[in-house]
Design brief:
The protein has about 140 residues and is α+β, with helices and mostly antiparallel strands. The protein has one domain: Archaeosine Trna-guanine Transglycosylase, Chain: A, domain 4 (Roll), CATH 2.30.130. The chain has three helices and seven strands.
Length: about 140
């Protein structure tokens, strides 16, 4: 198993990413397209078999690894006449223990030992933004 890590450019929070993905899926459904989440990238991962053996796409938001989504498929695609790779990932957005990550271009491999753990749902945190839930939990208030 192996993971990918990617900057989530233009998004300032986990809630904003979740909202964007919900709107994207609804828009695809309305257009009669398959409602799946896809990220296009110019480079095709060479270690595809390892990625698809339980790997996830980890999102870096505002300088922190914030969430992951399981990778489902890697598909060759052409965009504006240029070969690309479509990273197809699960709709379930899983918050992870935040960890700082400096900026980088494109995507990078992330070894399982380096991947942050998932954040368990917190009692009393329902309806609160994910970042606030995590901060309250770290203070022992949730």
């Amino acid at each position: 198993m192996l993971h990918l890590i990617k900057l989530c450019v233009g998004v300032s929070s986990l809630d904003e990413l979740a909202d964007w993905q919900r709107r994207r899926l609804a828009d695809k459904k309305k257009k009669g397209q398959k409602p799946e989440l896809i990220h296009l990238t110019r480079q095709t991962p060479k270690r595809a078999a390892e990625l698809l053996d339980g790997g996830s796409l980890y999102w870096v938001i505002k300088g922190q690894i914030a969430a992951r989504q399981r990778l489902l498929a890697l598909r060759p695609m052409t965009h504006k006449g240029v070969p690309h790779c479509a990273l197809v990932y699960d709709k379930k957005l899983v918050p992870v223990l935040r960890r700082a990550r400096s900026a980088f271009q494109g995507w990078r491999y992330l070894e399982p030992a380096e991947a942050p753990a998932d954040v368990a749902p917190l009692k009393g945190g329902k309806g609160l933004p994910a970042a606030l839930q995590q901060e309250l939990a770290s203070l022992g208030l949730l």
